[in-house]
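Anyone else keep sequences and C-alpha cells together like this?

Example one:
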Amino acid sequence: MKPLRLVPKNTHVPFMRWRNPAIGLSALGIVASIVLFLVMGLNFGIDFRGGTLVEVRTEGPADIEGMRNALNALELGEVSLQEFGQDTDVLIRIQRQDGDEAAQQAAVQIVRDVLDTDFGPVDYRRIEFVGPQVSDELIEKGIMAVLIALGAMLIYIWLRFEWQFSLGAVIALLHDVILTIGLFSLTQLDFGLPIVAALLTIVGYSMNDTVVIYDRVRENLRKYKKLPLVDLLDKSLNDTLSRTIMTSGTTLLALFALYFFGGEVIAGFTLAMIWGVIIGTYSSVFVAAPLLLYLRPGRRVFDRDEDKAEDGEEDASADATP
C-alpha cells in the first residue's frame, strides 16, 4: 500500500518571505481584539455572573431538549442544561435574578413546578446559589490559571532552550490567547468555565507545536553553522511541515465532528478549540519562528552544549577502556 503523504518530501516553501505581512496581520488582530474587549467586553456565563445551580435526576433518560425548551420559555433569562455522569443526571444553571434571595428561590420554584409537571417525578439532588462574590473569585482564578500556565511555559522553554526561544514562544502564546478572547468578544458567545479550560488547552497545544519547530531550529543551528538565519528558519519549518499539517489536520477533524454532532453543551468549548488550533498553528509558523530573527539566538550556546556532550562521551569511552 502506498503511504499517504499530505506534503511532498523536501519542500522549499519560503515562509520567511511572508513574515512582515504576517506579523503586521497579527499586530492588527491583537489591537482589534483589545479594542473589542474594551468596547464590547465578554458575555460572561452564569459561572462568572452568578446564578443558581440545580442538579436533578430523572427516573428514565433525561429529555434534555424538551427540558431546555420548557425552561427557556419561562423568561428567567439564561438557563443552560448539561447532562453529566449518567443519562438521568442533569445540571441546570439559572441566571441570577434581579432582587434578593427570595427572588432566586421564586425562580427555582417556577423551574421545579415545570419539571415536576412535565418531566416528573424528578429528584432534586442539589440546589446552590452562586453569588457575585464567588463569581468574582472565579474570574480572578481563571485569569491566574492562564497567567500561571504562561509563566510555567516561559520557565520550561528557558531551561530547555535559551531565553530567546522562551520569549518568542510566550509572545506567540499571548497572541493566541488574545485573539481567542477577541473572537468571543466579537461574537458575544457565552464565556464560561469551559472556555477557560479551552484557553488552557490551546496554550498547551500551541506550545507543543512551537517546541517541535524550535527543537528543529536548535538542531539545525548545530548542523548548519554558516547558513543564514532566514534560510535556516525556512529549512526548519519545511522539515516539520508534514508533522504540523498532519497534527493540526487530524485534530481539526475530531473537533469539527464534536462541533457539529456533539450538541449545544460543548459547542462553545469546541469552537474555541477549533479557533485555537488554527491560530496556534499559524502563530507557530508565522509568529514564533520569525521572532527568532529579531531575538537572535546565539549559536555558540548550542556549540558549548554539543562540546559538553562530546566530552561526556569521550570520558565515558576512556573510563570503559581497560
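And example two:
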Amino acid sequence: MLRFVFRRLIQLVPILLGLSILLFAWVRALPGGPAQALLGQRATPEAVRDIEVQLGLDRPLWEQYLQFLWRAVRLDFGASLQTGQPVVDEMLRRFPATIELAVCALLIAVAVGIPLGYLAARRHGTWVDNLVVSGSLLGVTVPIFFLAYLLKFVFAVQLGWLPTSGRADARARTEHPTGFYVLDGIITGDLGASWDAITHLILPALALASIPLAVIVRMTRASVLNVLNEDYVRTAEAKGLLAGTITRRHVLRNSMLPVTTVIGLQLGVLLAGAVLTETVFAFAGVGKFMADGIVERDFPTIQGFILVIAVIYVVVNMIVDLIYGLLDPRVRVS
C-alpha cells in the first residue's frame, strides 16, 4: 500500500507540471491584462508599460513561467492585484467558506442521491423510476447559475424564507476563530449565529448540489440494478434470507463501490461550481475571489486558485482509490 501511495505521488509531478504550463498559457492569453485592468481604459501606453515592468510582465514568457513555477513550489503565488495581500493569505482566509459550502452540498447530494437511486432501481420500470430518472436528467442539464438565480428569486425574494446573500447577518457581531461560521457559533456558545449561518448556506448549497446529486442518483441506480441481477443475490433470495439482510450484506455493499468513486470525483465539480454559486449569492469564499480575479485580470490570484484546486482534486482522487481498495477485498494493490 505504501508503494502504491508513493507511486501515485510521483505521478502527480508530470500532471501538475503539465497543468502549470497550460494554466500559465491560458492566463497570458486572456484579453487585456492586469495593467490595463488596474489603470482603466484611458490609461496611457507609458503608464501601462510602467505597471508591466513593476509586475515583471515585460520579461520573456519562459522567464515568467520559471519564476511562477519556482514560487508555486514554495506556495508563493505573489500578491493579489485586488487587495495587495499575498494570494496564499487571501485563500486561507476564504477557504473555510468554500469548504463549508462544498461539504454542505456534498452531504445533500449523498443523503438524497443514494436513497433516490436505490429506490429507482428497486422500482425499475415504474412511474417512480421514470420520475427519478427525469429529475436527475433535469439536474444535470440545468446550469448552476440559472438554478441559483431561480432559488434566490423564489425562496429569498418572493417568499422571504431565506437570506438573499452573504454568509451571515451583517448586524451580527459573532467572533469567528476558525472561519467556519456554523462551527464558530457552536464553539462560542452562540447557537443563534450557527443557525443564521445555516440559513445562509441552504440556497447556495442546494444550487451547488444539483449536478452531483443527479450524477449520484444515476450511478446508484445503475449500480444497484447490476447487483440485483447477479447470481449471488438470486441465490440469497432462494435461500429465504430476509430482504433487509440481502440489501445490507449483498446489494448495498457491492453497489456502493463505483458510487464511492463518483462521490470523490464530484468534489472537483463542487469546487469549480463554487465560482458561479458564490458569485450569485455574494458568498465570500475562494470561488467569488477567483471570479473577481478574472474580471480584474488578477494573474497571481487566478494561477494560485486553479493550481491549488487541481492539487486538491488529484489528492482526493488518490484517497478515493485507497478507499476503493479498502471497501473491496478483491482489489489488491501490489
